Amino acid sequence: MRAAAVAAALAASVLGAAPLSASSEPVAYAAVLAAEASDAETADARSGSFTATTDEAEAAPADLTTEQSELMSGDPDWQASARLYHAGGGGATGNDSLGCRPIAMRTVAVDPRHIPRRTRLFIRETVGLRLADGTRHDGYWYASDTGGAIKGAKIDLYTGHGRASMRPAQRLNMRTLTIADAGRFDGCPPSWEARPAQVRGVQMASAETSAGVSQ
After folding, report:
1. N or C: which end of the chain has fewer CB within 10 A?
2. Is the torsion defined by CA of 119, 125, 131, 136 positive or negative?
3. For 173-199, how does the pLDDT look when each residue is reduced to its tens digit (9 = 90+)?
């Protein structure tokens, strides 16, 4: 009887019910385990854990380019704790440290002693991130800004104008992100109309034209 009462009390606490009276039927141990598992799943869902959300499963597109696949599977060049920043309302103002207009979900502020400016970055955790316009992030960012509070293994991701612009990337805030060196870039970070492959083509064509002129 005592064992049955203990089992009943345990089940009541797990299931969130009122304590059972002495006349209540004993609860099977399997039912207690099932209730615990259900509660654990509910707690995980409420916690919004990145590793357990549907968002993360959606953030792994199958149509990666060869370069993206290599950068995803290769060893990272850096790991850095991320923060989000935006323009307006006390956020970022004016141009970045290269004198460029910041590009939402492209521009990254870095400590240039840790990550050199003008580095094209591939941030794995942002691949497939759903943006405000419904498109998916391709993982490419551009180290073109700096900040006095950014020291060492920290980065700030520019999300756009106003606090609302941070919502798509909110789950990245305060997380340690995995970053690969995807090469250098000239000029300013490209707009979203110019994809990385197109940008590389323009840069390569410009370099070849300049070499032809110099010759």
Report:
1. C
2. positive
3. 999 999 999 999 999 999 887 655 444
